[in-house]
Design brief:
27% strand, binds zinc ion, five-stranded antiparallel β-sheet, 294 residues, 10 helices
Length: 294
């Protein structure tokens, strides 16, 4: 099962969130039929959204990460609730680039770096908080680190990784975000940087270990304490009711066209691939309800 932990260390000067998101990334791969490079890009973004979303305290809050870098993959969307349950998709799932010289999947090449990463925090109270920054490399972790720093001025280190097996299934996926609280001594930052370097790629730790091993490696020597544990999952919130509202909300002309054709209307959820079909009488009923309300 996937796991997310939140920890503090070094007299509360360090906050850390880490997630093992292998099942989330694998589920996303099977739903969207992504090829390896797209699997990694989507898996990284889902892991990041889960960590940031789970940090939101308001129960109904949601967090969206949108990345658009001009590369062949198009846009990537990941949405999390406040428990870290996520859903997402990439525009072009069939993107698969040759491996980079270091043997890693070329996520930066697939995403591109001519564009932005946007983090939207919606507390369902007033206008959502939107933080958008220019991409650095399209590798996602680096881009997110810059975005987080610009939005809250707290220095952080972020690592995201997905390992894809020979059969294209997800072998390991997850990441971490470490934040240094204001007033932290300089030597703390230096030691933390050394730890991050020594820990190596997060996907390698998760391949044979757990999320606790990630915390132990990154916070080595800082006496970390786990504050919270949860089990995030890939979860879509679509329902026939929600999709009906979308149908009812279509323009008058568009609905007239659909009714004239007399064929059932099929709508496929972009997040989970579930198909919803509406017969002509059902569409008529929905439009009549809609007109009554007007
Ligand atoms: Zn759905």
């Amino acid at each position: 099962m996937d796991e997310l932990v939140r920890a503090i260390a070094a007299d509360n000067f360090i906050k850390m969130t880490a997630v093992n998101a292998r099942e989330i990334a694998e589920y996303a791969r099977t739903v969207h039929k992504t090829l390896p490079t797209a699997t990694a890009a989507l898996g990284r973004t889902l892991a990041a959204a889960s960590m940031l979303g789970s940090a939101m305290k308001e129960e109904k809050a949601s967090l969206t990460i949108r990345i658009s870098g001009g590369g062949p993959i198009g846009s990537i969307i990941a949405v999390s609730d406040s428990s870290g349950n996520v859903r997402g998709y990439v525009q072009n799932a069939e993107v698969d680039l040759p491996l980079k010289a270091d043997g890693k999947l070329d996520v930066g090449g697939a995403v591109g770096k001519n564009g932005t990463i946007t983090v939207i925090r919606d507390l369902h109270m007033k206008d959502p908080y939107v933080g958008s920054t220019a991409l650095v490399s399209g590798e996602i972790a680096e881009d997110l680190t810059k975005n987080l720093f610009e939005s809250d001025q707290t220095p952080s280190a972020c690592a995201l990784g997905v390992l894809v097996d020979r059969d294209q299934s997800v072998l390991a996926a997850g990441g971490y975000i470490v934040q240094l609280m204001p007033g932290a001594p300089d030597e703390l930052a230096e030691k933390l940087e050394d730890n991050v370097r020594a820990a190596g790629p997060v996907s390698e730790i998760l391949r044979s270990g757990s999320v606790d091993d990630v915390v132990s490696a990154v916070l080595n020597g800082f006496s970390p304490r786990i504050l919270e544990r949860s089990d995030p999952a890939y979860h879509c919130r679509c329902s026939r009711d929600r999709v009906s509202r979308i149908v009812a909300g279509l323009g008058k002309d568009e609905l007239a066209d659909i009714l004239e054709k007399g064929e059932p209307l099929e709508i496929i959820c972009r997040f989970c691939g579930k198909a919803y079909s509406f017969s002509t009488p059902e569409i008529r009923e929905l439009t009549e309800e809609c007109h009554k309300e007007n």
